Amino acid sequence: MNPSRTFRNPILPGVHPDPSVCRVGADYYLVTSTFEWFPGLPVYHSRDLVHWRPLGHVLDRPSQLDLDGIRPSAGLYAPTIRHHDGVFYVVCTLVDGPGHFVVTATDPAGPWSEPTWLEGSGIDPSLFFDDDGRAWFTATRPLTTGELNDGCQIWLREFDPATLRLTGPEHVIWEGAVKNAIWPEAPHLYKIDGRYVLLTAEGGTFHDHAVMVARSDTVTGPYEGNPRNPVLTHRHLGLDYPIVGTGHADLVDTPDGEWWMVLLAWRPYGGYYCNLGRETFLTPVRWEDGWPVAGPVEAVHEAPSLPEHRWPAAPACDHFDAPELAPCWNMLRTPREQWWSLTDRPGHLRLRPRRHTLADLANPAFVGRRQQHMDFAAFAAMEFTPRRPGEQAGLALVLNHEFHVLLVSTADGLRLVRREGGRDTVLAVHAPAPGRVWLGFEAHGQDYQARFATRPGRWEPLGEPFDGRMLNTQTAGGFTGVYVGMYASGPDPDNVADFDWFEYRPLDGTEV
Predict the structure, then answer these.
(1) Where are the coiled-coil regions (predicted)?
(2) Helix/strand/coil for 199
(3) Which of the residues 137, 170, 368, 387 has an alpha carbon 20 to 30 A from that of 397?
């Protein structure tokens, strides 16, 4: 580690759960889960394990990813990225779909192949390439009842990189380090000093999350657990600790022999609530008696002993003057038609309203980005004139179809609407503002304030600050976090909403 330089956790703020990382020479590549969001599985690139730039997404074409009707927090679970003989591999599970799949690319920025579907049940697949030329696939599945919280087992089969198929017999290699363990999952295999090391998670992906480890002299087992398990957890530190739920980890080494762990955790605020979702953190690892010793995961830590490599900062304001949407933007489920455009009116994002709304398990006309800070502000300039009831456009804070907040221009005026548990409540109304209007959300912890302006710089509050604790998984369930972005719905796709710009700024002094 480098004591003269520090970094701040999380290294990927906002909802970036289930991280997986691999190293190719001096370059590091990382992917995370995306569940019902499209494009799927973002790819990040780093040269110092601290500063990451987005390269794109693994699944960025509708032909690769069918998210039609996917439930919230279903979809894409727990990808793993690996590199072997010049080829990148990502394995993942489409939970409300055919199951496990593998995609490949020679450039992590893409294009990635169409999925090849793999046999076997469960979630959290991983690949391991042994030094004897063989490759192995692992995943976790329920023991007997079909419910993950009734116990799981880690299973393994050989993987043929030439045909992208599983082959040979199946081996059950692990059923958890703790008796009646909850969700033994997230298996990753490594070969360290001639021994096979199995890294897993246990305890559920909430406060009791933990990292466990086992090892074997042969890849198919038997595996012995570390008597000091768990090798990383924060569950003993209390509900008020600033970083909780540490687990679902992956290991990576540096060219100089340092070891590091990427993992998910979350930062509670506003009591025992977190709107940011599970984020990606980094912590050092050392080895004792052939076992990894990790953490604890700290907000500020000594940096890896790698040359610092910062990427050019992304602008806080998107003026929509690029030919394609920036990698930060996502949509709900798979778009089957082109309802957005950056070329119809150059310098604007044009949304064609859809009959599907954010309350539907569908693909509404919503383009959003992750909320990445406890304190933030997001603003946009919009031109839209609603012509009849049912037409609306503006900004939205979205957790899922039953929990979101709308700040929209309608035929009846500007409306602030909270949807909680599937029920809508109008929080505030203002006189109609046809044509150009400026809209914004500002958050300080769990207190959110909607704002608007009908003239540049003349911002006014719309309603009182509202409690944002309904926009988190502790209230709503699931595994995601809040997205903020632009939205339009209505029966007339020709009555378009044009967004001139969108700006997102942290208000806590950290970087975007």
Answers:
(1) none
(2) strand
(3) 387
Same domain, 280 and 333: no
CB atoms within 10 A of CB 418: 22
- Asked if the bond preceding 432 is cis, omega within 30° of 0, the reply is no
Tell me if residue 497 falls in helix, strand or coil: strand
DSSP one-letter code for 432: -
Write out pLDDT tens, residues 294-312: 989 999 999 999 999 999 9
Q: Are strands 40-46 and 53-59 parallel, antiparallel or unpaired?
A: antiparallel
CA-CA distances (angstroms) from residue 187 to 154, 176, 429? Answer: 7, 11, 51
Residue listed under structure tokens 């794109």: 56
Q: What is the pTM of this model?
A: 0.96
Q: Is the peptide bond before 142 cis (omega within 30 degrees of 0)?
A: no
Contacts 24+ apart (CB under 8 A), 212-217: 212/176, 212/177, 212/178, 212/184, 213/291, 213/292, 214/174, 214/177, 215/290, 215/291, 216/173
116 pLDDT higher than 90:
yes
d(CA 260, CA 8): 15
Distance in angstroms (rounded) separating the CA atoms of residues 215 and 51: 32
Q: Residue 3: pLDDT band by 50, 70, 90 thresholds?
A: confident
385 CB burial (10 A radius; 0-12, 13-18, 19+): middle
How confident is residue 327, by pLDDT bands cut at 50, 70 and 90?
very high
Domain membership of residue 310 (yes or no) is no
- The β-bridge partners of 419 are 404, 424
Active site residues: 18, 185
Same domain, residue pair 447 and 473: yes
Quote the tokens at residue 190: 């490594």
Give just the sign of the alpha carbon dihedral 143, 144, 145, 150.
negative
Amino acid in position 479: F
Q: Do both 432 and 390 map to the same domain?
A: yes
Of 83, 80, 223, 73, nearest in space to 154 by CA? 223
Per DSSP, what are the bridge partners of residue 261? 251, 283
Query: 100: which residues sit within 8 A by CB, 6+ positions away?
Result: 91, 92, 93, 117, 118, 119, 120, 122, 125, 139
Match 């007339």 to its residue by tokens: 492
Query: Model confidence over 71-109: pLDDT tens digits?
Result: 999 999 999 999 999 999 999 999 999 999 999 999 999
pLDDT in the model for residue 356: 97
The range of the structural domain enclosing residue 411 comes to 317-506
List residues bridging with 202 in a β-sheet.
210
Q: What is the DSSP letter of 35?
A: B
CB of 82 closer than 8 Å to CB of 58? no
Asked if residue 379 lies in contact with residue 439, where contact means CB atoms within 8 angstroms, the answer is yes
The closest alpha carbon to 248, from 216, 296, 280, belongs to: 280
